[in-house]
Specification:
This protein is of the alpha/beta class. Helix content is 40%, strand content 14%. Residues 1-16 and 19-56 have low confidence and may be disordered. It has 21 helices and 15 strands. It has helices at residues 3-7, 14-18, 31-34, 37-47, 51-56, 72-79, 82-85, 99-108, 119-127, 172-183, 212-217, 230-237, 262-267, 269-288, 290-297, 309-317, 323-328, 334-337, 350-360, 377-383, 388-396; strands at 60-61, 63-65, 89-90, 94-95, 113-117, 132-137, 140-141, 143-147, 163-166, 187-189, 201-206, 223-227, 241-245, 256-261, 342-343. The protein has a six-stranded mixed sheet with strand order 10-11-9-12-8-13, sandwiched between helices. Helix 4 packs parallel to helix 8 and helix 12 (230-237) crosses helix 16 (309-317). The longest helix has 20 residues, at 269-288.
Length: 420
């Protein structure tokens, strides 16, 4: 960050303040979004089904995660000792700053338990034949669109002519954002820096989540949509204003999902079940103890996330009790829908998987997207998702039905609600 940029953000070097020394900006370049990851991963993909890969996969739970609240279930399962309670060995989770290096680590066998934005495993399995399995949802809701304090944006229709950052082309954020733009008469486009925009065009770009608040503070972008706690961080440190919570547009939508290697799930059934038991137990605990879990994950607790407890607690608890969100329209359906800023329930509803595939076909992305042509939503719901292990774990922990995103009368089915 330049000295001029630092002066506009209170002198803070955002990378140094929140990610001291572990990574560089160059390492966060999102090759996956730019379309270059497959060239780097080609040899690894073939190894996914080879004896070498099977031998490399030991009995230790090895977790890779991004520093966002989407990783809560994995981090709580580690922090509360739930893996050990199942008789498993587990390494401390490894923080990764971008989606492409997390995908690369997963494909290489470095990690055997990860969270991915839900459209990512769709891309991996059907575009690149990577044998990934979606095991459960990591959470529901938990994201939002914030706008810069330098703007006067009050609704999506005013995003015409603006620059907006998304964390990944294949993300729930990009899907929900573009749905809202289309509903508001704005055309999402992907143009080079400096290329003129029409009044009804919103230009999208990829930024890793840790870079978003600083980019907004120095007015390199006008808005960003991302997982927490980077919205809360933007509000408290970068002068951002919450325009809309994504869970107030798509009711209780999935965002990140728990993923494992298909070979592991088929060959190590007992081990896989124990892993899923720990993850589901963590989600139940997180659903019931959000403030405590926020502190545990923060740098004031176990240090899984590099933000202080106050920021993470805001990201996980402050919602309908904040009159400002209701007054500005950041929340419009809360009283009717009854969801939280972030909620936790593991069941991967097939209806949501099918809707995601349908919406991906309407979403503008960079790179080749021909794999979506003819991709049957029902096939994806049946083939990508492994329902067995999570359902067994849910039977062990029936308290999951108490989460506000679950209908206890019909917990395994729901109707998707997408409404601006």
């Amino acid at each position: 960050m330049s000295d001029h940029d630092k002066s506009r953000t209170g002198g803070a070097d955002w990378d140094d303040e929140y990610f001291a020394g572990d990574f560089t900006r160059r390492q966060t370049l999102d090759m996956f979004a730019a379309g270059g990851l497959m060239a780097a991963l080609g040899p690894l993909i073939g190894a996914m089904s080879s004896p070498a890969f099977a031998a490399a996969d030991d009995e230790v739970v090895r977790i890779g995660y991004l520093p966002i609240t989407d990783a809560t279930a994995l981090l709580v399962a580690h922090g509360m000792g739930y893996f050990e309670a199942e008789g498993l060995k587990v390494d401390r989770p490894t923080l990764i700053r971008g989606w492409s290096p997390l995908v690369e680590g997963f494909v290489a066998g470095k990690f055997n338990l990860v969270h991915f934005l839900k459209p990512i495993p769709v891309w991996m399995r059907y575009n690149n034949k990577i044998p990934v399995k979606l095991m459960a949802w990591a959470h529901t809701n938990g994201s939002g669109l914030v706008v810069g304090g330098h703007t006067s944006i009050e609704d999506f229709s005013q995003l015409g002519g603006k620059q907006v950052a998304v964390p990944f082309w294949y993300s729930m954020h990009n899907i929900v954002l573009q749905y809202a733009l289309r509903q508001s008469g704005i055309k999402p486009v992907i143009k080079s820096a400096g290329e003129p925009l029409a009044a009804d065009e919103c230009n999208l770009q990829i930024l890793p989540p840790p870079e978003m608040p600083a980019a907004l503070a120095v007015q390199k972008i006008d808005a960003y949509i991302v997982a927490e706690p980077f919205n809360a961080l933007g509000e408290l440190k970068a002068g951002a204003r919450m325009l809309r919570f994504t869970g107030d547009i798509w009711k209780n939508h999935p965002c990140c999902v728990i993923c494992m290697h298909e070979q592991v799930t088929s060959e190590k059934k007992e081990w896989t079940q124990k892993v899923m038991n720990a993850v589901v137990r963590a989600q139940v605990y997180a659903s019931q103890n959000k403030a405590e879990v926020a502190r545990l994950m923060s740098k004031d607790g176990e240090g899984y996330l590099p933000m202080p407890a106050g920021i993470v607690e805001r990201a996980m608890t402050l919602y309908t009790d904040d009159a400002d969100y209701l007054e500005t329209g950041a929340i419009k359906h809360a009283a009717e829908w009854g969801n939280g800023r972030i909620d936790f329930q593991p069941w991967p509803y097939p209806s949501a998987t099918k809707l995601i595939v349908e919406e991906m076909n309407k979403t503008v992305v960079g790179g080749d997207r021909t794999f979506l042509d003819g991709l049957d939503p029902q096939h994806v719901a049946d083939d990508l998702v492994d329902y067995e292990y999570v359902k067994n774990a849910l039977e062990k922990y029936p308290e999951w039905k108490n989460d506000p995103s679950v209908n206890p009368g019909d917990p395994f089915n729901r109707e998707e609600v997408l409404e601006l």
